[in-house]
Design a protein that fits this description.
There is one protein chain. Helices cover about 25% and strands about 15% of the residues. It is of the alpha+beta class. The radius of gyration is 16 Å and the shape is elongated.
Length: about 70
């Protein structure tokens, strides 16, 4: 796995997070991160299915206010 922070090609496994996801350590930057870091799902309390639905509504031309009202996400 490549480190999302420093770009090093070989990040090492570095234990597990409290939610059960694998934690990695960047050898050059010495920072820990998870697989979801720097992705659409990072630090979101929204399921991937909800994100898919919102993106689908947006691509169909719905307004952001309409999407927020329909999905219940603020």
């Amino acid at each position: 796995m490549e480190c999302s922070l420093c770009g090093h090609s070989k990040a090492h496994k570095h234990g597990k997070m409290p939610n059960g996801h694998q934690r990695y350590l960047g050898p050059a930057c010495r920072q820990t991160f998870c697989e979801e870091f720097d992705s659409l799902y990072y630090r979101r309390h929204v399921s991937p299915e909800q994100i898919r639905q919102v993106l689908q509504m947006h691509s169909e031309g719905s307004s952001l206010r309409g999407i927020s009202r329909t999905s219940g996400l603020a």
